[in-house]
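re: that chain from earlier
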Amino acid sequence: MEQEVAPSAVVTPSELPISSVLGLTELGGHDWARLRGGIVTHASRNANFRSLGSVVLAMCAGLIFLGSIEWYWLAGWVIIFAFIQLRGAQMEKTLVDAERRTLSKSEKRRQAFLAVARGAIWSVPIIFFAPYGTLEQCLTLALIYAISVACVVQLMILAPPIALISVSVIAISGLSVALVTQLWMLAVGICFYYVISVLGLIEVARVHYAARIAQSGMAEKQEVVSLLLREFEENEADWLWEIDPTRRLRNVSPRFAYSLGCSQSEAEGRALLELIAGANWKDGESPVSLHDLADRLKNQENFSNFLVQVTIKGEDRWWELSGTPLRNEKGRFSGFRGVGSDVTERRQSSEKIEYLARFDTLTSLPNRLQLTESLGEALHYAAQWRSRCALLMIDLDRFKAVNDSLGHLTGDKLLAQVSSRLQALMNENLICGRLGGDEFAIVIRDASHPDFVRTVAREVIDALSEPYKVDQHTLYVGASVGSAIGPRDGRTVEELMRNADLALYRAKDAGGGEHCKFEPSLHASAEERRQLEASLRAALTRDEFVLHYQPVVDAHDHSIVSFEALVRWDSAEHGFVSPGKFIPLAEDTRLIVPIGRWVLFQACQEATNWPDHVKVNVNVSPEQLLEPEFHQDVVDALSITGLRPHRLEVEVTESIFMRDATIARNSLEQIMALGCSVALDDFGTGYSSLGYLRKLRFSTIKVDRTFVTGAAQGSNESLAIINAVVAMAKNMRMTTTAEGVETSEEAELIRSLGCDKIQGFYFGRPMCEKDALKLFNSERKIA
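^ sequence. v structure.
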């Protein structure tokens, strides 16, 4: 039974159906029309040779029978034989394109007729010449026929059906003669020879067809691969490249030629490295990646995703190449083949991302990441060479006020100028960067000289303290610097940065514009601050706060007009903590907001026990005033305690207007709308601006104790300031309160200067609630 074979499978000769090989069927799933067309085309190419060989054999057969057959019969036969062969050769020449088209029925009939004619003309000697010849002539004719049949089988295997027809006609003719003459052994021999010839023809044809099928499959695969490669080059940014053993380009694709900046013909045969190295290749100044590529090509090494910097028409580009060495059938190196792509844009994007990851976008200085890396390298260098390195932490003074008053855009421009000044101080031993906000840092790689750190810190402070010109504004900001030396003050990056930050914090506490070195005692202060903060967070829940009240008296009759509420903290862990210590900490940690809310409620509650004409003054932190719910806190305190609004006076400092003047003014206006009064505390010591007094109507201006002390000591400037404040307050219908009065002489001076109210130790120190009530119960005035 004949077996069908899938066209994609590997085909062996025995699997091909005999009927398909002989052209009777088209089983097996192969394109038999195309296969036969190709065979016919190939057979037509040697048609002249086969025809000439057949004519030579026919002439030999004719010469054998000279003397036994009249010459003209022999000559006529040979002429007819030659005519048929030459005519057949001409017809076969017309089928040279059969593999590209389908044979018509008329062409198939002519092929069959030609095969019959050739077989019939060969049968003439057997039928008409052999009976008149000798035994020797017949044996010679049999030999010629055997040769002829063998030639037909060998030369016509490319067209098995045609060969089978010719051999069959000759065999039938010979068998007929043998049967007529009753030469039985000859008949058996002819049959045996015919069967052997046909089987040989079929087997050889099978082998040939299997080879043609395999060749066709290989060609189809190559065509598919070529198609895929073309599609790959057309639709992707990658391209194919190939070089010979001398590293010269071959089979240059259009896309590769485009990447080289030239045509295919210009690139073909050129040295690859010469085309991509630019003008500096001969000088040996090409990028290291190109030399690495040259070494890999020289050593015949595989490489994948190899990044190479190339120069195309003077422009630097980045290529990513992969390559594999080629070997011929003898194992000899025959070049390289691989793929490549232009990754310049991707490389530039990566470089940009890397830059953004390591540099500050506003100032273009190294960022925290790069600074920590540089500090780590400096520490390693110091440990290796037993030297010293240093870290300077820099924080701008008064920058927040500029940022809040003029806006973040002006602040950013100021930071850019600060970075330029810092950069001008740098050298190969100094690396400056921005840590964030208005905080910068300098890494000193070699700080072995004892005075070097102090010198650099002073240069930084002096440079940053010079005035800045930003958008028609002349701005003044200073700088505070804290330093730590490695490895003395820290053997790791984290330790050195923490200790430099502690030194900076101390410099800021000193008032700014200072340089402080790290000292081990700062750790104790930092630890104390940490513990103090932890206790402060729990102080409210533990009910550790208490209010003390300092009286404010009328300047003329010394009667009490109000009390200023002052918060005190008696900590279970730390004992009595000074307000100058925990109030700044509460403001830094924003704990001042809940503490201030408690103070407001407690002061209103205790003030309800005082006479109706006595007010309570409550200090409000800027952090409280900027809270959206501050107005509601006041309303809640008054409604819950029942204190009348006109008895509550909120005291604020001028610094609130440097944070957000609009929010501060709105909050105070809402409080004043309730009937509460607002006092401006420490007037003249901060960011004094008469514009605030014009925009917001304060009820009281408090003159700071420094001016009171100065006036008592005869300072004309202090006297002039107090006189100016009093005059301004009277014209604006405000009252004035002088703080810090400690003697009777100071009290008399203040009264003579026109102040309305006086506050100070002379009239009473801060006291607890019970002591404040005793002042009213005894109904006595403070003398």
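DSSP finds 29 helices and 20 strands in the chain.
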